[in-house]
Amino acid sequence: MPSSTSASPVRVHPDAPQVRVLPDAASLGAAAAAAVAGALRESLDRQPTVRVAFAAAPSQQPTLAALAAEPGIDWRRVTAFHLDEYLGLGPEAPERFGAWLRRTFFDLVPLGAVHLIETGPDAEEAARRYAALLAQAPLDLVCLGIGVNGHLAFNDPPVADLSDPADVKTVELDEVCRRQQVDDGSFATLAEVPRRAVTLTVPRLLAAGRLFCMVPGAHKRDAVRRALLDPVGAACPATALRTHQDCTLFLDSAAASALPPEVTRGG
Asked: Contact at 8 Å (CB) between 50 and 79?
């Protein structure tokens, strides 16, 4: 098995990810929600239940708001997961990603089941419990973003393992990642941001049937450029999106501003 520092851990799909560029965050959210809703309807037409994992971040809010308003989705047959959770916050802390997703989306639609990462006093046990829930059936869809340091979920460079044998693990968050949480308005100061978290690994994300990645904002333009143009590897974990056979990347014009025209043509 290739190591996490390999330049190409698995085959890069020449047509993945598909890149769509929208004028602004609101139109990005509408377009992404329509695509996710279409995929949900297709999946529900051919199988009894659908399993979806969601990222929690302000960048995802326009998509989730539009998705909650999409018609014709039998949410009672959808099971929801999320990608990561802080360690060290109390169970009722509003900064928890599970709490953010409940406020923003999970409590707005009649989901059949919601599985939150309940960290508790034993982080390793929490990771094992969540991995067991995920292992019960494949994830059909993942809705995610890209961090300013190129992370996927909480898999930060340069230690993200693109060939990780685990499905869920505990990680140390790098300072760039932690500072992003302050810049996003989730915490007032860097000192308040937890240093550790539980996250789905990169291979677990890539095992899903379809990926929808929503990345608005000029502050993400370098991460987007690296994700699409740098060698696939742990220095920019988001490069791993190029190894998935069915990934669509939704950008606004600001996030796409560092890309050459040939990457965004037709978006």
From this structure: yes
pLDDT in tens, 68-95: 999 999 999 999 999 999 999 988 899 9
Cβ 84 vs Cβ 117: under 8 Å: yes
The Cα 110–Cα 79 span in angstroms is 10
pTM for the structure as a whole:
0.92
**265 has pLDDT over 90:** no
Q: Which of 94, 77, 91, 87 is nearest to 40 (CA)?
A: 77
What does the CA dihedral 136, 142, 143, 144 come to, rounded to 10 degrees? 100
Rounded Cα distance between 193 and 174, Å, is 11
Neighbouring-strand partners of residue 113: 79
Contacts 24+ apart (CB under 8 A), 264-267: 264/19, 264/21, 267/19, 267/20, 267/21
Q: Could you count the other beta carbons within 10 Å of the beta carbon of residue 174? A: 18
Report d(CA 240, CA 161) in Å as an integer: 10
Domains of the chain (ranges, CATH numbers): 18-136+151-233 (3.40.50.1360)
pLDDT-derived band of residue 165, with 50, 70 and 90 as boundaries? Answer: very high
Residue 53, pLDDT above cutoff 80: yes
Contact, 17 vs 44, CB < 8 A?
Answer: no
